[in-house]
Every structure is written in structure tokens, then in C-alpha cells.
Write a structure and sequence with these properties.
This protein has 251 residues and is mostly helical. 81% of the residues lie in helices and 0% in strands.
Length: 251
């Protein structure tokens, strides 16, 4: 169907979303941009599908570290949704969640918290307690509380989120990786090193099998952990143990 430009545009955007979930963010960006270009050629810049694709492009830019562009695309998506579909609160909650995550990356933690709480409240009204959208927002809220150094609250949100992910996906799904890694980091920040190491190793075990980019994060935090353990061993006069931990950190 070569003249079905709407179908083509939609397929590009869905495919881009799949590449983003697989960790190929450049490919995701490229496909979403192709989708948007088709909509623009047919003067559909204010359509719901255009808004949906904008949000996915914003997510790709966020993963690539371009937070200003991510913010711009997500805010434009939110504007269109509110204008064209004001009663569809679930669409708004979805974009609010992603915007909150971007504001966190920009260091605007209170603004991020406000956006994520609004998103969470909408999902709680419309979905069951164990719905994946709720799990996703709880994870994002946990990230904000971690950055605000409220580690107990962060731990609580991450645990709730992980429980929901595991109920829906099983224990070894790639989607669990980021929650396990963040939970491991929180335990390290709380001084509970053994628990932190266990969660980080679980995260690494899952992500390394699929070569997902989240494996780099687990490796970085584990390196920090072994550097700390090397220093602690040196303080106790355990030179050989310190050297072993140092080599592990370098590895």
C-alpha cells in the first residue's frame, strides 16, 4: 500500500520504539524522525499520532543525553494532547512521566517530583495497583528521591516497582535491569554493601546476556563498590585482599 502514508508513518514510530527498548537509541531517533517527516508532509503536525511520535522521539533524545531536545519534544507532545484530547488523562500521564524523568536529568528535582506525582496519581485512578505504568512511574520517583538523598523512600519505591516488574515479566527480564541496578546503588549509598553488590550482579547478569546499554551502569557502580572494598582492606592491613579488589574494580 504505497499511498498509505499514515500506516507507514505509524509503522516507523512503532519500530523506533522497539529499537529504543532494545537500546539502539540512534536507530530509534532516526525512525521517529522519518515518521514525523511524513506527518509534516501531509500537514498533520497537530494530530494525536504526531504527538505520540514526538514523545517517543523525546525519549530517544533523553537516552542519548540531549535533555534540552528531549524536553522540547515532550512539551510539544503534551501541548498537542491537551489541545486535541483534553479528556484522555492517560496520554497526559504518560508524557508527564517522561517529562519528569527529563527534568530530573536536568537537575530540577522538585519539578521532576511534581510531574511524576501527577502522573502517578492519574495512573492510580485508572489502573490496578500492579499495572506496569504504575511500576514505571514508581521507578522514576525512586530515581528522584535517590538524587534528593532520601534513600529510604527511594528504596521503598524501587522495591514496589521491582515487585510489579517481576510479577508481570518474571525475574530475568531485561526490563527489570534498571530497577535492580538502581536498588543496588541505593543499598551502597546506605552502606549496605553486600545487598548492593547482590542486586548489581543480578542486574549485570541479565543485561550482559542481551548486550543492553544498562550493563554499563551496573559495571560502573560495581567498580565503585570494589574500589571502596579495596580501600577498606588497606585500612585493615589486608594488602593482598586490597589488591584483589582493586583488580576487580579495574576489570
Amino acid at each position: 500500500m504505497p499511498k498509505d502514508y499514515l500506516g507507514t508513518a505509524k509503522a516507523f514510530a512503532y519500530l523506533g520504539n522497539v529499537y529504543r527498548r532494545l537500546g539502539n537509541y540512534e536507530k530509534a531517533k532516526e525512525l521517529c524522525e522519518q515518521s514525523l517527516e511524513i506527518y509534516k508532509q501531509h500537514n498533520l503536525q497537530n494530530s494525536i499520532k504526531f504527538a505520540w511520535t514526538l514523545a517517543h522521539l523525546g525519549q530517544a533524545y533523553k537516552e542519548l543525553g540531549n535533555y534540552d531536545k528531549a524536553q522540547s519534544f515532550l512539551e510539544e507532545s503534551l501541548r498537542i494532547y491537551r489541545e486535541k484530547s483534553p479528556d484522555n488523562y492517560l496520554r497526559e500521564a504518560w508524557v508527564l512521566g517522561h517529562l519528569g524523568s527529563v527534568y530530573r536529568e536536568l537537575g530540577e528535582f522538585q519539578k521532576a517530583k511534581s510531574f511524576l506525582e501527577r502522573s502517578h496519581n492519574i495512573y492510580k485512578k485508572h489502573f490496578s495497583e500492579n499495572h506496569m505504568r504504575t511500576a514505571w512511574v514508581l521507578f522514576l520517583l525512586g530515581e528522584v528521591y535517590k538524587d534528593l538523598k532520601d534513600y529510604d523512600t527511594a528504596e521503598s519505591y524501587f522495591k514496589k516497582s521491582l515487585s510489579m516488574y517481576e510479577q508481570n515479566y518474571g525475574r530475568n527480564h531485561i526490563e527489570n535491569t534498571k530497577v535492580l541496578a538502581r536498588l543496588g546503588e541505593v543499598y551502597l549509598l546506605k552502606g549496605q554493601v553486600d545487598q548492593g553488590e547482590a542486586f548489581l550482579n543480578r542486574a549485570l547478569s541479565i543485561s550482559s546476556k542481551t548486550h543492553h546499554p544498562w550493563s554499563y551502569y551496573s559495571l560502573e557502580v560495581l567498580a565503585d563498590l570494589y574500589i571502596k572494598r579495596s580501600s577498606q582492606a588497606l585500612e585493615k592491613g589486608q594488602d593482598q585482599e586490597a589488591e584483589i579488589k582493586k583488580k576487580k574494580a579495574i576489570e
